[in-house]
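REQUEST
  id: r-88c1
  op: predict_structure
  target: N-acetyl sugar amidotransferase
  payload:
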Amino acid sequence: MAKYGLPEEIKFCKKCVMPNTRPSSSNEYKHTAAREHDFIKFDKEGVCSACRFNEAKENNQINWEEREKELLELLEKHRSSDGSYNVLVPGSGGKDSAYTAHILKYKYGMHPLTVTWSPHLYTDIGWKNFQNWIHIGGFDNYLFTPNGKIHRLITRNAFINLLHPFQPFILGQKTFAPKMAVKFNIPLIFYGDHPGEYGANISIHQKGFSSEIGDKGGSSGFSTNYLNPDEKPEEIFLGGKSIAEHIKEGVNYGDLKIYLPMDQRIIKENNIEFHYLSSYIKWVPQECYYYAVKHAGFEANPMRTEGTYSKYNSIDDKTDGYFYYTTYIKFGYGRATQDAAQEIRNHHITRDEGIALVKRFDGELPRRYFPEFLDYIGMTEKEFTEIVDSFRDPHLWKQENGEWKLKYKVS
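RESPONSE
  id: r-88c1
  status: 200
  body:
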C-alpha cells in the first residue's frame, strides 16, 4: 500500500512534466503522516488538469473583456468614498502580490491594505523586496511575526511528524488574511493566481469563494467545515500534535490560536469574499515578474535557486527550499518540476527543455542555508537525514549501491 494515498500507477503529464503524485488539496489540521490526499487529475489523453486549465485561458473558453467587466463591477461594489481600505491583499512583496496590489491600486483605483505573515527566516533579497513593495510600490502594510519560540517548536514538530517544515508558515499565511479583513471591516480579499493554474480541482469558471480553498503548493488551506476551532482542540493538529497535546505539554493556548482558522460563522457574518485576480485578468507569471520589477522594485535572486533553475519564485524565506525538498521526498517531484511545468504551460520552454531541467536540478538538497535551517529546528545533519529517509515511500524509492533513487522519472 502506497503512503500518503499515492496513486498505485505513477504517470506523468503528456504536455508538461507534472506527475499524478502532486497533491491538489489536503487538510493541514489533521494529523497522519500517511494521510490521504486528493491528487491532480489526468484526463483520458494523459493531460493534467493544470494544463487543461491553462489551455482554457487561451482557446476562447474565457472572454477576458467580459471578465474585466465583472471585475470592475465587483470593485465598484466595494469601492469606498471615505478613504478607508476597500480591498485586502495578502502577500510578501514577491512578484505575485506586488503585481496584484499594484494593479488594484493604480489601474483600478482601489485602496488596498497589504498584510504579511512573516517568513521563518528572511533572506536578504526577500527583506529587500518586502521593503521595496511598500516604499517603491507605495502601500500600507501590516507585518505580523509570530512568537518565535512557538514557531520554531511547531516547525520542528512538523518536520519530525509530517516532514513538512513549512506547515506553520502556510497555516499562518492562510488564516491571517481573513482575521485582518474582519478586524478592518474589509469584506474583499484578493489573491493573485488562481489555484486551478497549478492543478487544484476547481473549475476555471469559478471566480469567487466564500472561504479559502486550495493553493499552488497543494498543501495549504483549511477545511471550511470548522465552525469554532476552540470547540474540539483534540481534533486540530499543529506540527502533528493536537492542540490538546500542546496544552498538556505546557504550551499556552493563546500562543497557538493565531495559527487556527477563524470561526467560519464570523467570516459569513462579515460577508468576506475571496477572489483571485487571475480569474479576471489573463495571468502570465513572467509578465507579473517584469511588472513587479518595473513598478514595485522587485529583484530576482542574484544566483540560481537551489533545487531549480529559476531565480524569482519563492525567494523570501531561508526555509523555502526545504519545503520543496521534502515534497520531493514524499511525492517524487521537486521544485524544478513545479517551475518547469508552469513555464511549459505558458509556452516559455518546451517539454523537452523542461525534462532536461528536471533531470538536472530536481531533488537537489539546498545547502546555502542548511546550517541555519538545522539550527532553527534544533537538529544535526545526521538526524535530518534519518528523518528524511524514514519518509521515503518504497512505492517511489529504491536503493542502488547505497544511494536512494526514484523509481519513476519523467521522460
